[in-house]
Write a structure and sequence with these properties.
single chain, 350 residues, alpha+beta, Porin, 13-stranded antiparallel sheet, 13 strands, 33% strand, globular, disordered N terminus, hydrolase, TesB_C, HotDog_dom_sf, Acyl-CoA thioesterase 2
Length: 350
């Protein structure tokens, strides 16, 4: 579950590849978005939308042994979990991209927040997750959602992403009915416009390297580094900060939960890059071992993931084989829409 490289969570792990056991989707209720737009959608984006279209399998009931009484399960605060399933994007290295699991957890949790029962929209405002194991991109992932609390304004959910009978990610997230209150924000940095910067597709259009081809052809999000891509040797003086423009390669349906999920997906691409940039490293350095450990995100204001978003990133610290990345996301007109933080394992093999 790595940022930017799409590498696996554990670079020393070598999971076996079980045969892909397909579930019969027709017998379950489909949730999310089936693309039916009039204009053609790029294949990579259509695949992402399909990955974020989850199937509800049913409800898992939690039982507790060793505690006397009929309320044993409720005594630990959970009696059941709604179970969803989603497919995985194929990756060159065979591991599930961490941003995909982030986004699917957001979708699964959001699908349990019943707007009609709660009296109106209640969008996500924060998430905190831990990556625990690498995922196999040939297998689907199941998501068990515990409905922890529905209050007057806030709803809390806990999601476990499970594959091969073991959790690969655990996330807690919160949703809030929008309300009036105090308002302030930091200013957006002044940087070059996205139209003046090359896309990865333009940079690597003629490359024969399979990783470069994947970057050029398969990503559903257009990512443009203001200071230059980290897939080439970094230029200039080492600095623990950078700015990245991003948006999907085509339009998305008008569903706020989907836009939040896609923004979470894209947030995992590059958040550890300031760590590398500070030390003059690039993703092509064969000595590099990087894996995401955790990820937090706060959604401040409404945003569209299919419009340009500036991702201002910094790394305040790297120590003990770990690096910390932090970021602020701004809409093109300067509105702060989200804040992120991620710590990752960052090692340089000697």
């Amino acid at each position: 579950m790595t940022a930017s490289t799409d590498h696996d969570h554990d670079p020393d792990h070598d999971p076996d590849h079980d045969a892909h056991q397909h579930q019969d989707r027709d017998q379950h209720q489909r949730h999310g978005t089936d693309h039916t737009a009039d204009s053609p959608v790029p294949r990579s984006l259509a695949e992402l939308i399909d990955v974020l279209t989850l199937v509800e399998l049913g409800t898992a009931h939690i039982s507790v042994t060793g505690i006397a009484g009929q309320d044993a399960a409720s005594s630990i605060g959970a009696t059941s979990a709604r179970v969803f399933e989603g497919q995985s994007q194929r990756m060159p290295h065979g591991r599930v991209f961490g941003g995909q699991v982030l986004a699917q957890c957001v979708m699964a949790a959001g699908l349990t927040v019943d707007e009609e029962r709660l009296g109106g929209p209640r969008p996500i405002h924060s998430l905190h997750g831990y990556f625990m194991r690498p995922g196999d991109d040939t297998l689907p992932i199941r998501f068990a959602v515990e409905e922890m609390r529905d209050g007057g304004s806030f709803s809390t959910r806990r999601v476990h992403a499970v594959q091969k009978e073991a959790p690969i990610m655990s996330m807690t997230c919160s949703f809030q009915t929008r309300a009036d209150g105090l308002e302030h924000q930091v200013a957006m940095p002044e940087v070059a416009a996205p139209e003046t910067l090359p896309s990865l597709a333009e940079l690597f259009a003629d490359s024969e390297d399979p990783r470069a081809r994947q970057l050029a052809e398969s990503r559903p999000v257009d990512v443009r580094n203001v200071e230059g891509t980290m897939w080439l040797p970094p230029q200039g003086e080492p600095a623990a900060e950078q700015n990245v423009w991003m948006r999907t390669v085509g339009p998305l349906p008008d569903e706020p939960l989907l836009h939040a999920a896609v923004l979470a997906y894209a947030s995992d691409y590059s958040l550890l890059e300031p760590v590398l940039r500070r030390h003059g490293l690039s993703w092509t350095d064969a000595r590099l071992r990087v894996a995401s450990l955790d990820h937090s995100m706060w959604f401040h204001r409404p945003v569209r993931a299919d419009e340009w978003v500036l991702y201002a990133q910094q790394s305040p610290s790297a120590t003990s084989g770990r690096g910390l990345g932090m970021g602020q996301m701004f809409s093109r007109d300067g509105v702060l829409v989200a804040t992120t933080a991620q710590e990752g394992m960052v090692r340089v093999k000697q």
